[in-house]
Amino acid sequence: MRNLEGAVAVVTGAASGIGAGLARAFGEAGMRVALADVEAGPLESVCASLRARGVEALAVPTDVTRPAEIEALAERVYAELGAVNVLCNNAGVCQGGPIQEMSDADWRWLLGVNLFGVIHGCREFVPRMARQEGPAHIVNTASIGGFVTGGELGMYSTSKYAVVGYTESLAQDVAHHDIGVSVLCPGWTDTKLADAARNRPDELGTAPAKMEAITSGMATGMDPLEVGRRTLRGIREGAFYIFTHSDLRAVLEHRFQNVLAAVDRADDPL
């Protein structure tokens, strides 16, 4: 998708962080942008800032864990903007701590946003995108945590590994349509992810965030707008994997070298 002038992008988790960065990058490219987020006030602020720059923007408060709200988002975007050329299932949350200690409520919250937000978004938008004229593209936000993990962040990585696998499968399932697919795997980015518990639903209770493992890295991380610009490049080039930090190569190589070494040993004499 080289020509994006006037195209329509939908971005979830758009009230802050990478979502806001994606929306701003799309606006720079002359796209029209529909922004969705559970935080209505900050969402409207980002939308207003885009409009002030001459971007046609629409704010739709949306909880991605609720299928009916994703359906309402799709209906409103198609009614008011006419099409969806780029869909970014980006909303995400995080909670740290030993994975074996996480409660059912913890899992319901994190998987509900990080994984089912992607599932709901694709299930609602992909059929509509397949029926419309012209090319389209889907970007599902995973993380470098979708390929490597560490202590205290296992629940987050579980959700992001799942997003990578889901997106790899999605790309095959929509290959016969004119729909490109990417999985976005950012490294350290300056976002509010460490404060994600502010949006945890009351019915799921509270839990210590335990985000010390990522706080310092995020504080010095990449500007979300730069992540958005690199994502835009990936969309234009039709890239499946979109990484934002080349210094992640070493950790990825270490992981896959270990995987391949284990494969090589499969037929060793017992």
Q: Please provide the count of β strands.
A: 7
Sheet with the most strands, sense and barrel status: 7 strands, parallel
Helix coverage percent: 40-55%
C-alpha end-to-end distance: 52 Å
Strand line-up across the major sheet: 3-2-1-4-5-6-7
In the CATH scheme, the class would be: Alpha Beta
Question: Nutshell version of this structure?
Answer:
With 270 residues, this protein is of the alpha/beta class. The protein has helices at residues 17-28, 40-52, 67-81, 104-114, 116-131, 154-173, 212-219, 224-237, 249-264, and strands at residues 8-12, 32-37, 57-61, 86-89, 136-141, 179-185, 241-243. Helix 1 (17-28) packs across helix 8 and helix 3 (67-81) runs parallel beside helix 5 (116-131).
Report on the structure:
46% of the residues lie in helices and 13% in strands. It has a seven-stranded parallel sheet, with helices on both faces. By secondary structure, it is an alpha/beta fold. It has one domain (8-264): NAD(P)-binding Rossmann-like Domain (Rossmann fold). Helix 1 links the parallel strand 1 (8-12) and strand 2 (32-37). It contains nine helices and seven strands. The radius of gyration is 18 Å and the shape is globular. The mean pLDDT is 96.
